[in-house]
Amino acid sequence: METKIFDLLESGEAILGLELGSTRIKAVLIDEDFNQIASGSFDWENKFENNYWTYSVDDVWTGVQECYFQLTQNVKKEFDVEISKLKAIGISGMMHGYLPFNSSGKLLTPFRTWRNNTTSEASEDLTKAFDFSIPQRWCISHLYQAILNNEPHVSEIAYLTTLAGYVHWKLTGEKVVGLCEGSGMFPVSDKKEFDENMLRKFDETLVLNNLGWKLGEILPQLKLAGAKAGNLTLEGSKLLDKTGKLETGIPFCPPEGDAGTGMVATNSIAIQTGNVSAGTSVFAMLVLKNKLSKVYPEIDIVATPDGKPVAMVHSNNCSSDLDAWIALFDEAYKLAGANMSKSELYELLLKNALDADLDCGGLLTYGYVSGEHITHFEEGRPLFVRKQNSSFTLANFIRANLYSALGALRIGLEILFDNEKLEISNVNGHGGYFKTKLVGQKIMAACFDTQVSVMETAGEGGAWGIALLASYMINNDFGDLEEFMDNKVFKNIPTTSIMPEKAEVNGFQQYMKEYRAGLGIERAAIENI
């Protein structure tokens, strides 16, 4: 096997996937059988500066370079090969946000990420004008809010893109994004392109502001899965590989956001399939058979990388507050002289949560590190509340945090399940919420009240998902993306499935009654603290 991998690496047949996630940048190499053969990573964190959640552009490139360098060092150590050639590359990143550039390629504002809930006026105006849900996270909401705010940089905009689109542009020179990524920038039509009527409506609004550009001129070109989207340039090679060994000319697939790569990594792009990605944020992607009956501000309509409509329920907050509590417990363990790794501590505490009262014993928590559009909060206050007679146990406390991480998501899902009668027989899960075996999966099944499956490859994440899309680009003579994934990638991948238990579903629903009733406490905390 090692000889086979050595030959693959030596001949430049490996495929690279790189994703810029919210807490980690990860790169993976895969072989012709889609197996991960090497990886590298770089930890980073967003910062709250001048009332915006952001990452610096310098950190983007430091992280990309260090991540790729670590991968090459791991390859050198494991297989004694120095990478100079690759068969294909794919770039993924956090969807949405705001990265506007002028004609010289200068970034006009610090990167405004998906986590910002600062565009409510724009979101409401655009949703009304388009009769189409335009969430606060979307690029077009950030742009229109900047116009409403009379921000001086707006007249200078020559190009607007996403994080993945930006990195791809700098590596290839091509101003393109994949269809799923683009559908989180601006609505796409059944023609699988930015909606012409909505573009026209937007430009009619812009005329009043005397801007020197039209929206269609500053957006990237959309590309379907399987299309070629440029090649590594000399400048791009220097940005990616600080050692200068990587050859130019390597083909790239269209850059995609984490929602698209999550669908691919869980084989959830067929009609009436679904997946849920749970980490810093949590979002469910449910591929639609029919269009929704009406517009719901809580529900995004986006697309799979190959163009099928998807209902997306996105909650800005998931595991961040739980992670903070675990870090606090870690301090206590260290103070007591205990020798336990962070991963062991997670395992210990999360498994203990399975012994909790199914309604969490009356404990209530809101992990709102940032705002939450589904429950209508523009900013957040992490909050824990209990009554005098609540059952204040460690197991109940951890379980309450695990429930709360899915609270806003559940409220959005109820719109689809109750109002639209959407039926999903199975949801594929991936992300950090599922790392402790069975725990997150059981609670997610209670939240959805449906079967939740976790594939053996679920931990590979978006970097693997974009590597699969890069592989499809050079193998798309096999058929459409759905066939490629069903018959080549996922044919024999082991999967663990859990059906919801009625008692746990009832316990989760009881917790949700308390969660809804307590939202006023969260509002008071935001207004007074």
Overview of the molecule:
With 529 residues, the chain is α/β, with parallel strands linked by helices. Among the domains are: 96-160 and 186-219, 2-Layer Sandwich (Nucleotidyltransferase, domain 5); 320-404 and 503-528, no CATH class. The chain has 19 helices and 20 strands. The longest helix has 23 residues, at 57-79.
Task: Describe what is shown at a glance.
With 529 residues, the protein is of the alpha/beta class. The chain has helices at 2-10, 57-79, 120-130, 139-148, 163-172, 179-183, 196-207, 215-218, 234-240, 258-265, 320-335, 342-352, 394-404, 407-419, 439-448, 461-475, 481-489, 502-517, 519-528; strands at residues 15-20, 24-30, 36-43, 47-49, 52-54, 88-93, 99-101, 159-161, 176-178, 221-223, 256-257, 274-278, 282-287, 300-303, 309-315, 364-366, 383-385, 426-430, 451-455, 495-498. The longest helix has 23 residues, at 57-79.
